[in-house]
Amino acid sequence: VIDVVVFGHSDMRKEIPVRPDGKIAYLLVGEVQAEGLSIDELQQDLEDRLATYLRYPRVDVILKKAKEARFTILGAVGRPGVYSIKGPTTLLDGVAMAQGLSQGQYEGSTIEIADLENAFVVRRGKVVPVNFELAIHRGDTRHNILVEDGDYLYIPSSLAQEVFVLGEVGQPRSYGFRGRVTLMEAV
Fold it and tell me: How far apart are CA 97 and CA 91, in angstroms?
């Protein structure tokens, strides 16, 4: 949201939201592209356009409210959801904001049930090459990337991985597993 002030013309002061298409609509000049311009560039553009109607217009543009940068994190985290980005936020920061990785019971022990090997980040419709395992468990800073506005982080549950052991075994059924499992381990 910006506030546009034309000096000497108090009736032209207007608070204007920047639309999702990056444009504003202003008196006399119609639609103006605002996204991608600095405040000074937008002021100059408005002054140039208003010069057709006013003699030596002096425009002041004031940023009233900036769009809040946000990212989404879903899957095996404590609190999946949409979070605000306030300053530099890394992948680890994002997981921490979502209250860490989910835990569950497996063979009598509490374990992390996040499948970091298959976790991913989508940015502007493309998967970002990042290894959650290296970033979270090994502290590899090359993979602890900065989260950007609109990023989608997904950490699947390892409980979704299962193997079906059927036939002449003690308990034929499906078994959940983490990481890799050999045929002998499954049996």
Answer: 10
